[in-house]
Amino acid sequence: MSLQTEKSAAIFERAQKVIPGGVNSPVRAFGPVGGKPVFIKSAKGQYLYDEDGNSYIDYIGSWGPMILGHNDDRVIEAIQKQMEKGVSFGAATEIEVEMAELMCDIVPALEMVRMVNSGTEAVMSAIRTARGFTGKNKIIKFEGCYHGHADALLVKAGSGVMTAGVPDSGGVPEGCVQDTLTATYNDLSSVEALFAGNPDEIACVIVEPVAANMGIVLPEKGFLEGLRTICDKNNALLIFDEVITGFRLGVAGASEYFKVKPDLLTYGKIIGGGMPVGAYGGRKDVMSVVAPLGPVYQAGTLSGNPVAMRAGITQLTILREHPEIYTNLELLGERFRTGVKEIFQKHGLPYQVVGEGSLSCIYFTEQKVLDYASAKTSDTEQFARYFRYMLSQGNYFGPSQFEAIFLSAAHTKEDVDKTLHDVEAFCRQG
Ligand code: KE4
């Protein structure tokens, strides 16, 4: 069954004339999977509807924000009511305090927090804060982890850059990355070696506590705890980039889920409820270097935008008041992963299925995926065939092997079983 996509194709033609690649974020162009992107017209709950009237079970949820499902009535109503009061003031508002208090109340590692407008901005600001607080310049990131598109972090990044096969981005001067050191995920010795080679020069280690931009790579037992110890030993800060895991791996995110306390944390996605929001925060003494309290400058016209705050507060409050959401996400995630594993085994396919809670990934490789190098052994052509088939059957996955599968509170067992049925059909056709 091939999709009718004439309207999407026509819009894509127009788009490419006025937007680079026809999209406002590279992964949306379907480059790694071939074919043209379908253009989404609307969404509700776990479903997307494209311009040609095709419907899909949505397994990206806007890359994480839509953990309640699309257009949750409670969130939409709250946004509409907030907008009646005004969309943006550029002045201090109580609702920003309410949002900061709520986040700090939910996440024990968060003592103080600053709102920004994207995950990239959150990470960029957290790095600057770590450098300002420690007086050191070098940072450590991990191959395959993606932390947004700030210059210093586009070094063997994951996600779009990795999929595009461009280990470093164009337009990033050598000077911007000279202080960025790259370690191997799940390999503490690679981190220790960098500290040994750069004594007293490293401001921080930034890590995705569950790597979700090279597919899904879980931290091996002791990895995150080891990073905490190494940072303490070397007077460096530990930053958890929780743009994806924040408020998803349990309501308090990865720092509580794994019981490892970072010094700084970065957020995006879920805290905006679909509106453009990012945040960074953590230890009060560290955050006290941020302007206007301290010398580290960071600012933003729409930071703490009241409508975006209302969306975030509403979504986070629902998540805090309904812990069963996480229990159900775990059960549904396990149902999906177990189902796919059984299908692969039945068909003698040596593929990998990895995940935690509502985050999953299927790798077309027989290697256990522990890091960037093993993730890269995946057969991306086979993934592309899988993606196109699943899309044609009404399952919208991320159009890249190196993205995650996201479940929401709106997904049902029936949705997962339907998708498993389609996975089986894909494997049957060979
Ligand atoms: P944004 O600037 O896109 O809001 O956040 C950057 C970011 C930071 N840290 C982590 C761990 C992230 O996953 C992201 C962005 N995630 C990608 C999905 N892999 C966004 C999708 C896209 O780039 O279009």
Describe the protein in words.
With 430 residues, the chain is α/β, with parallel strands linked by helices. It has 2 domains: 6-60 and 323-429, Aspartate Aminotransferase, domain 1, CATH 3.90.1150.10; 73-321, Type I PLP-dependent aspartate aminotransferase-like (Major domain) (Aspartate Aminotransferase, domain 2), CATH 3.40.640. Helices cover 38% and strands 14% of the residues. It has 15 helices and 14 strands. The strands form 3 sheets. Strands 4-10-9-8-7-5-6 form a 7-stranded mixed sheet, with helices on both faces. A hairpin with a 2-residue loop joins strand 1 (40-44) and strand 2. Helix 2 runs antiparallel to helix 11 (306-321) and helix 3 runs parallel beside helix 11 (306-321). The protein starts with 5 loop residues before the first helix and ends with a helix. Ligand KE4 binds next to helix 4 and helix 5.
Q: Layout of SSEs?
A:
Layout (H helix, E strand, L loop, with lengths): L5 H13 L21 E5 L2 E4 L4 E4 L14 H11 L10 H13 L5 E5 L2 H16 L3 E5 L16 H5 L10 H4 L2 E4 L4 H10 L4 E6 L15 H11 L3 E5 L11 H5 L6 E4 L10 E5 L1 H4 L18 H16 L2 H23 L5 E5 L2 E5 L8 H4 L4 H13 L2 E2 L8 E2 L6 H17 L1
Parallel strand pairs: 3-13, 5-6, 5-7, 7-8, 8-9
Antiparallel strand pairs: 1-2, 2-3, 4-10, 9-10, 11-12, 12-14
Helix pairs in contact: 2-11, 3-11, 12-15
Bound molecules: ligand KE4.
